[in-house]
Amino acid sequence: MPELPEVETVRRELADLIVGHQISTVEMIGARTFRRVDDRDGFVRALVSRTVSAVNRHGKYLLVELDGLVRTELVIHLRMSGQLLWAASPGDVPLEPRPLHTHAVMTFAAMAGELRFVDPRTFGEWYLTVERAELGHLGPDALHLAESDQAEFARIVGSTRTAVKPLLLDQRRVAGVGNIYADEICFLAGVRIDRPGSSLSKPARLRIAQATGEVLRAAIERGGTTLSDAQYVDLYGNAGAAGNSHAVHARAGEPCPRCSRAVERTVIGGRSAYFCRRCQK
Ligand SMILES: [Zn+2]
Fold first, then answer.
1. Are residues 52 and 58 in contact, defined by beta-carbon separation less than 8 angstroms?
2. Which of 107, 181, 240, 244 could form a disulfide linkage to 224, CB 3.0–4.6 angstroms apart?
3. Active-site annotation holder among 11, 57, 60, 207
4. How far apart are the first and last CA of the chain?
5. Is the pTM of the predicted complex or chain greater than 0.90?
6. Alpha helix segments (H runs only) across the chain
7. Which residue(s) pair with 271 in the sheet?
8. 140 is catalytic
9. Do 77 and 124 meet the contact criterion of CB atoms below 8 Å apart?
């Protein structure tokens, strides 16, 4: 499932591609993708002829901002298996056929090609939000908070008895971290995944904040993580390379990169978790 670094990778590519361009057409193909859209004609009308002024992100949500006086954004949430893919072909060569499970397509004025939303499991969504009214349940963006206010990040970690890994996964507290990077953050911070947040010392809470920034930034630099299911690829269909540098996630039995003891696997909050018993206290 794409997490913050994967969504950020797509955001950067999409911003380079479509900011300043006018939307020409929107095809609503998959009903599930548009399950929140009551007025389908109104949805298309709200998008067509609008110019993309920015591509933003909050947590795992991509937000295509449209020009205008009121901040209106197209929310694209990839969820489990959603992919945004740019299809283009040089000259007069026809575009390659749309993949199975293409649920939405958007085109832009004076751009040869189309933006496709492919989502086999159909948990992904497209909808419009004005002033982010639909995103009010989300906590602060994990990367932004880790870079702008580590003391506040540490306060959030210490504010609950919830174990630190499920705490990092709770999008209402901080938004963007998922199962892969939560393991990596706890390892880098040297904190046991099942330690209640409120039991951590202040330095340990600050290490969680620091590690969140480091882990997410490093993963973005490597283009995110593509697992063996290949469900995440970037806008141009390329896999990310961050999986090669994971220290503990999905590495049960392999030596810990710090102490060489075997990495262990457990289940916490119903999710697989990986950790080093010696390095994480
Ligand atoms: Zn270790």
1. no
2. 240
3. 60
4. 28
5. yes
6. 4-18, 40-47, 142-148, 150-158, 164-169, 179-189, 202-221
7. 268
8. no
9. yes
